Fold each of these.
Amino acid sequence: MPRVIHFEVHADDPQRAMRFYAEVFGWQFERFGQIDYWSIQTGDAASSGIDGGLMPRRGPRPPEGQPVNAYPCTIEVDDIDLYLKKVATADGKNVVPKMAIPGVGWLAYCHDTEGNVFGLMQPDPSAA
């Protein structure tokens, strides 16, 4: 069956967005040729997960309070409370508070510095 193999972050300010993701998650960025596009390495090739890209936003930023109209990416973390602090320190925002997904783990949704929604998931089978 088809799987997601790549994701893209759209940014009003690509340099600011790259600083955010590097500071919070340690992601690495490399310019792709001569165009305004950067490849994102989210981990080593031996671990599960996907890599992506970052590009300037095409069109206006979605207004605050608009329902999510995208495929938000969820990032697995080992300590969701620590990463919620990292997000805030890097000028991001927690927009849906940490909640238990019974038998799965802890989930929260955040905005990056560009207003994009992403999830944080701490696996924990005892979450309730």
Note: The radius of gyration is 15 Å.
Amino acid sequence: MKPTVTRTFTTTAAPEAVFDYLADFTNAEEWDPGTVSCERTYGGGEVGTIYRNVSSFMGRETQIAYSTAELERPTRIHFTGHNEQFDGHDVLGIRAHGQGSEVTYTAEFAFNGVARLAVPLVKAYLPRLANKTVDQLKTCLDRLPSSA
């Protein structure tokens, strides 16, 4: 079974502002506590855009190539990440909620080779990381324009 975590939260930011911010994966440097650096290496932000992400996970740094798999403005964003030991999916759902938005963030991880041995540790660590990510993400999104 692939380790997966889902969190839903609200923000004061308008759905369009949330979409624009999250669709630019370089912003992960601000909202993802595991991202050390993220740079666009191909494309202009559309489906097929590729990012080089350096992540720190459980004390180890690794480079992951992320690509934009889906963009359905302003409701859905899907990124895929890959390296020799990791495959991941980050899916962000966005919908209007009051004067702001409701965001559902789902992260799914798959490990290859020797890295599969870490799955039990990853499953235990994910809830804590997910809570930290949501706290940081909400803070960033709440700085964006609202629908009011």
Note: Strands lie at 4-11, 35-42, 50-57, 60-72, 76-83, 86-97, 100-111.
Amino acid sequence: MTEYLDVRCDCGSVNGKVACGQCFFQNRVMCYCDDCQAFLNHLGHEKSLNKYGGTDVYQVSASQVSIVSGHEHLRCLKVTPKGVHRWYASCCNSPIGNTINAQWPLVGFISSSIVQDLDSTVGPIKGSVFCKFANQPIPKEKKGPRSHKQIVATMIIKLLIWRALGKARPNPFYRAGKAISKPLCLTNEKRN
């Protein structure tokens, strides 16, 4: 029997489901990259960052995800022109998650968009990535058991296998190979 996690924006207008359970089709990391921080700061959702500037991200294949209601509120932005697609709910400016593009099967949900407690449902974070962008030194015990290199290598392997298995579709964030909301680029917005 498939277990599901509930995805919800802060005001409850956007609702979705994520099939979970099989370890191979999920990953949980703490990301300290400056783009994650810029995204959450832009939305005014700093509460999704830990005190070191990290974002708890639950990664799954796109085919595990469905948006049940609130499609009309989903918006996309990129921090830089070549950056990943970062999704949020325009109704309340709450972050939902990240995708690479329509061809790659990865959806990384910001943990604040998941209703259930991730520690008890999927387990602790596997490790931390992009620690050099943390806003203060991170204690070793907070980083998780796997290094940046181990996390990245594991995700590359998973992504290639997920893609070969056709796990990029269906993807609720894309239609006919294009994002359902034209991505706004924060870097271009600052220049204007």
Note: DSSP finds five helices and 13 strands in the chain.
